[in-house]
Amino acid sequence: MANPYRQLLSVPGARVFVAAGFVGRMSMSMIGIGIVLMVSAVTGSYGIAGGVSATCALAYAAGSPVVGRLADRYGQDRVLPPLVLANAVSMTTLVLCATPHTPAWAFFLAAAAAGATSPSLGAMVRARWSHLLTGTGGGLNTAFAFESVADELIFVTGPMIVTLLATQVHPAGGVAAAGLFTLVGALTLATQRRTQPPPRPREDGQTGSAITNRALMVLCGVYLLMGSVFGAIDVSAIAFAQEQGHRSLAGALLGCYALGSATGGLWYGARNWRTRLDRRFRRSLALLVIGLVPITLIHNLWIMMAVIFFCGLAISPTLIAGFSLVERLVPARQLTEGLTWVSTFIGIGVAVGASVAGRLVDAYGSAGAFLFPVCAGIAAVVVGLLGASQFGEHEFSS
């Protein structure tokens, strides 16, 4: 049987835009922790550092759907160059703020500009796959699985790179590297015109945003709660490792979680599914929540590493099915924007989950904090079930 991932990369032009998207997306796992490390080193305040990082994330959440809409309308090759050059200026300004006596407001302004001008390259790469593979049966499913596994690899390697640069080279080194990754990846992606979706200018009578699609609203609600699960797991796992006297192994613990997700994604993408796509989404979401329950009962770090690996197995399948649903439910002229909205809500959820879990850790320790992602996951299942009727009679058989 042919390897579906090898077949995927044999698509003309795929290797280049996949590599460009991977490089450009490295910054999404680096910028938040890079800002915290830089600002806290310069100001001595984690409060300011957290606020600056949150400002960048919220500015990205506000700006990325607009960028996605412009990419749908005018083409990625026209939108990316001016956007990424503006991002390079903003990131450079942020790096230059890393000097003693820089006022706090300068960090906030630079971070807001950096976030607002950050391109959602994950959505753009997935839109390219949809353009190239629509009508190829399981090809698109495999492509979305491939991208989800790439995201997991990014979130394993990115934090290690940024931490090394910020602690061993210069406090601003991680932020500078994140900006460089975005610049190189986005400009390279913009040159790949053959693989990008064709521009779809707005026609008379076509108004509004993709978010007005009720089915997309349901998915965004689910992914907001899923993001809360991810953010809470990150904070709770770090606290758990510290309570066990092995704070240095927190990264390894989270790496097991990401490895489980990558394993599940590779398995999911290699299969030819007969179950309806919407049912696959709800089932994988339910399995994700069920997998969260055991981590609330573990009190040994080494056992937790094994358990959290299995806990992560359903993450990528759920994300893959969700992105595939967006591709089916949103008009082609709004696909990049639709994919961006989903990613945006995940990001907002991560910020919310991390904040809530941090407070629970302070009050009740990691045992109490681990209960929050279970509750958020149950809420995600409820939203998915209640909103299932919004998916209508679309063709979900493959």
Description:
This protein has 398 residues and is an all-alpha fold. It is 75% helix and 0% strand. It contains 16 helices and no strands. α4 (46-74) runs parallel beside α6 and α11 (250-269) packs parallel to α13. The mean pLDDT is 82.
Question: Which structural traits does this protein have?
Answer:
398 residues; mainly alpha; 16 helices; globular
Write the layout of secondary structure elements.
Elements: H1 4-9, H2 14-25, H3 31-43, H4 46-74, H5 76-96, H6 104-116, H7 121-133, H8 139-168, H9 173-191, H10 214-243, H11 250-269, H12 277-292, H13 301-311, H14 315-329, H15 335-369, H16 371-386
Helix pairs in contact: 2-7, 2-9, 3-4, 3-8, 3-9, 4-5, 4-6, 4-15, 5-6, 5-9, 7-8, 7-15, 8-9, 8-11, 8-14, 10-11, 10-15, 10-16, 11-13, 11-14, 12-14, 12-16
Percentage of helical residues? over 70%
Unreliable spans are none
What does the average pLDDT come to?
Answer: 82
Q: Find the count of extended strands (DSSP E, 2+ residues).
A: 0
Biggest β-sheet, characterized?
none
Structural class: mainly alpha
Query: N- to C-terminal separation?
Result: 19 Å
Number of helical segments? 16
What does the overall shape look like?
globular
- Helix and strand run: HHHHHHHHHHHHHHHH
Write down the Rg: 20 Å
Task: Tell me what portion of residues adopts beta-strand conformation.
Answer: under 5%
